[in-house]
Amino acid sequence: MAELTYRDAVARGIAQEMTRDESVIMLGEDIAGAGGVFKTTVGLLDQFGPRRVRDTPISEQAILGAAMGAAMTGLRPIAEVMFSDFFAVCWDIVANQIAKARYMTAGQVDLPLVIRSANGGGSRFGAQHSQSVENWAMSIPGLKVVAPSTPEDVVALLAAAVRDPDPVLFFEHKSLYASKGEVPDGELVGELGQAAVRLQGNDVTIVALAAMVPRALEAASQLAGRGVHATVIDLRSLVPLDVTTVAESVTATGHLVTVEENPRLCGWGAEVVSIVAEECFYDLDGPIVRVTTPHVPLPSADALEDLAMPSAERIVAEVLRALG
Amino acid sequence: MTEPPDIDQRLTMFELMTDMRLFEKRAYDLFLQGLVKGTSHLSLGQEAIAAAFGAAMSENDWTFATYRGHAHTLARRVPMGPVMAELLGRDNGLMRGKGGSMHLTSVPHHMMGSYAIVGAHLPIAVGAALSASYRSSGQVAVCFFGDGTTNIGAFHEALNLAAVWQLPVVFVCENNLYMEYTAIGSVTAVARPAADRAGSYGLEPVVVDGNDADAVYAVAVAAMSRARAGDGPSLIEAVTYRHGGHSRADPGKYRPDDEVAAWLERDPIVSYRARLIAEGVDVALIEQIEAEAKAAVDAAVAEATAGAEPSADLLEMHVFADGGSSWRN
Fold this sequence. Notes:
The complex is a heterodimer. By secondary structure, chain A is of the alpha/beta class.
C-alpha cells in the first residue's frame, strides 16, 4: 500500500497495462516528451519508447480517428484529449464513428479503445477549459463512460477500461489531480459499472461523481453534525450505470439528492433521478433534488466559479430541503 | 515507372467494372420499384478507380470508402447477394440491414467500412496504417473520398499525421468535379483540389485519368509499393465524372448538357472494352464476362428479395461487445 496522487495514478494504471499488453499504445498532444500538460503521463515515454507513446499534432480528429482505425485493426489504443472541452472539435469521430461502428456493421467491428480526458471545473480556466462533459458522452449509445474520484479507482478503472472490448471515455477530474489516496500494491483491475458506497447513513442518499464525491462527503460530514446521516454513493461509471446500488440505498433512506457538475439541463443526474422516480417511487419520502451548476457557461473568476460549482454548503442546504 | 497490368489483371478490372455497373444499374431499378429505401449514391461512370485499386491491392490490404461505396465493396470481392440484400434492408444483408447503402462493411474482406460523414474516414485509415506499421504487417490502408472532402479539416489533419509518421496509407481523391450539387472549382482555392494540397504535406502531386483503369492501376501499384516499402503515404487525384446526380434525390441538372455528353463519351467501361478488343482479347471472352456479371446480378437480386425482414431482436443487438445494448444493471 502506498500513497499516490490521482495524477500519478494515471501513469501507474497505464504502465500496468502497457507492460502486460504490447498492443496498448498511446496517442495525444504533449503526452510523450512533456509527460502531459497535467503531468499525468510522466515516465511512460522512457519506459515504453516513442513507438508506443506518441506525441501528436494538435489534431483531435486525427488523434481519435487514428485511435479508432488502430483499434479496429488489432491494437488497443489509449488516446488523450487534453481538455474535455476539446471533444467539441472531434465529436464526429466519437459520436458518429466510434460509437456506431459496431452497431452499423452488425457486430463486425471491435473497438477496444480508451479516450482519456481532463474534465471539470474549479481551476479558474474559464468556459472553454472547465466543462464537465460526461453527460455528452452518456447520451450517445455505444460509449462507456467512466469518471473516477480516487487514485485507487484511477488505476483500477483505467485498467478495466483498457481491457474492455468497447470504447471507453475516461474522464479524469483536473481538480483532483493533486489529491492523494492509498493505492494497494500489485496489479489492480476494477470493474466498470460498479458504484462505491463511500459513506453509509440512514437518512438520505447522495449520489455523486468525480470531484463531487469529496464535495458530497464534506457535506455529509457537516450534515452529521446536525444529526442527518447520509449515504454517499460514488457512481464511478455512468455507462454502465449501477442502478442497483442507488435503488437499494434510496429504498432504505427514502430520499435522493444527486450532485453533479453538469449544467442543469440534461446533466447525468436527470437520468438517475428519472430512473429512481420510475422505479422507487413508492419508497420515496420526499422530493428528489438535483444539485447542479446553473445553466450557464463556467465563469473564470474565483468568486463566480465557486458560486457556480456545487459547494458543500449548497449540498447541505439542498439535502435539508429534500428532507423537508 | 511500373509495369503495366498483365492480361489477367486487365480482365479482372474489366470484370469488376462490369459487375459494378450492372449491380448499380439494377440497384437503381430497384429504387424506382420502391424496394430499395432511403438514399444511395452511385458510382456509375467512376468504376475504373475502385476496380483498378481492387486489382492492385493485396488481399490483406484495407479499404476505407465513403457513402458512395458500392463499387469499392464489390472491388474487394464481397459477394453481390449480401450487398444487394443490405440495400433492401433484409436480414441476409451484409450488415443484417443495420447499416444500409451508405455503410457497407465486410471485415472478412478487409472492406473496413463506408463512412457517411465527409472526411471522417481519412484519420481512421491513418489509424489502420499505424496499426500495420506498428505490427510490421506489410498491410496498406487505401482510403477513397470525393473532391468535396479536400475542404474539410479531417482531410488536412489526416494527411499531416500520415506524412509525419510516414504511414502506409494511400489517399485516393475521386474528383468528379462536383461536391454534391456545386462545382468543386467554385468553392476551392486551388485548381486541383487534392493534388494542389499535396505539397503542404511533403507529398508529390499525382493526377491520373480516373476513367482509364490501366492508368489508375499504374499509380495504384506505385503508391502501394511506396507504402509497403515504408516510404509513407500518397495522395492521388483521379479525375472522373458521375453519370448521374449526387444521390438518388438529385437529377444532376446543374451540370451543363455538353459537359455531361462529353463525359458520357468517355465512359470508362465502354472505352476499356474497346481497348481490350483492339489489343486482341477475344470478343467471346468479353461477352462471357458480361453474361456472368448479369447472371451474378440476377442471382443477387433473387437472393436479396428472398431475404426475410430483420427480426425485432436485431434492434437492440450489437451496441456493445457482449452483443446487446444494456447500459445498466
